[in-house]
Predict the 3D structure of the following.
Amino acid sequence: MKFSDIDFGALKHMVDSLTEEEKESLSNMARNMAKNMPESMNQAAQNFQQELEEEDNALDYIDYLGIDENLANDLDGQTLSMLESGSDMEQYYSDIEEADLSASVLFYTKALLSLCRKYAAPRLADAGLTKFERPETTTLYDYAWQLGQSEAMERLSDEKHPARFFADLSVVLMQAYVLLQRAEYEFISQRDLQVLKDAMFSHHLLADLYSLKKD
């Protein structure tokens, strides 16, 4: 099944129907997987980046991903580093039609998590959700689920970010989370990866997360 074929409405309904204990268990599982996944993929990234440094034809990741220049200037170094790693690995495999792009998914979703921790976590903590007072312990799933809860949306909404904004954000982050889980065990095609990239770079997910920055 392709990433784009997943029924995310049904997925969200399934998640909403879980008990608090089941949700916490799922969150803990996501946290453990996040700890275990990067080791092998990070090593692969280091190897690929070393080879890319020896080539002259790799595009700058800002241009390759089509990131708005003003946004790129505002984003922090950690997030940009993850985006660069994802771009490097994607470009490395660009001439291989059946390449597995799981590692690029890892780095792009790590960039999303970085932005969530920096900009969504403080707002969620201010809304009384104590879990987000320690952003370093949170996972992408935590944000994908919590931002879609009606109580959280009401507390977070303002003139710039209506409740619908957070509902949409929740759905897209859940899509990214599902793809991240698939990346550990399944083949990720260019078509699958493109769904994530469209959300991040064409439909302004990065900019939306950055817009949560507190003044």
